[in-house]
Amino acid sequence: MSFFKKITGGASKVFKKATGDLDVGLRKIGNTAGTIGGYVNRATPYLSMIDPELGAGASQLSQGLQQGRSIIKDSRGVVKQVKSGDISGAIQKAKDMSSQQPSTSFY
Predict the structure, then answer these.
(1) Residue pair 19/82 in contact by the 8 Å Cβ criterion
(2) pLDDT reported for residue 99
(3) Which of 3, 11, 23, 87 is 20 to 30 Å from the Cα of 34, by its Cα?
(4) What is the predicted pLDDT for the residue at 12?
(5) Which residues neighbour 34 within 8 Å (Cβ) at sequence distance 6 or greater?
(6) On the CB side of 62, how many CA atoms lie within 13 Å of its CA?
């Protein structure tokens, strides 16, 4: 085996390991955000009974968490494209993601 094949083979293994760990981490964060957002969404009516402003804040928090989960899902798509070798597709998807404006305002 030539020297360059050894180097590229090792680099390829490191790259696959790093992107695999990134995908798992993003999946776990996205699932957690979705779960917490669901709980907050279910609690919103009760919080609104206590204080309408508290309910409105909880509703915005829930929307923000769900939007974050969606962004993480899109990010995982970019990682999968990079892993498959579709670099130009991953760049285009990342550009599309960057042009999206958040729909939830916390101000």
Answers:
(1) yes
(2) 73
(3) 87
(4) 58
(5) 65, 66, 69
(6) 16
Here the tokens at position 76 are 């995982």
Q: How many CB atoms lie within 10 A of CB 49?
A: 10
Q: Among 75, 74, 66, which Cα is nearest to 104's?
A: 66
Question: Which stretches of the chain drop beneath a pLDDT of 70?
Answer: 1-20, 100-107
Residue 49: what pLDDT? 93
State the pTM of this model. 0.64
Q: Give the amino acid at 31.
A: N
- Other CB atoms within a 10 A radius of the CB of residue 67 amount to 16
The pLDDT of residue 44: 93
- The residue whose two tokens read 């090792």 is 10
Q: What does the alpha-carbon distance between residue 50 and residue 59 come to, in Å, rounded to a whole number?
A: 14
Task: Answer yes or no: are the C-beta atoms of 81 and 96 closer than 8 Å.
Answer: no
Instruction: Report the pLDDT value the prediction gives residue 45, as an integer from 0 to 100.
Output: 93
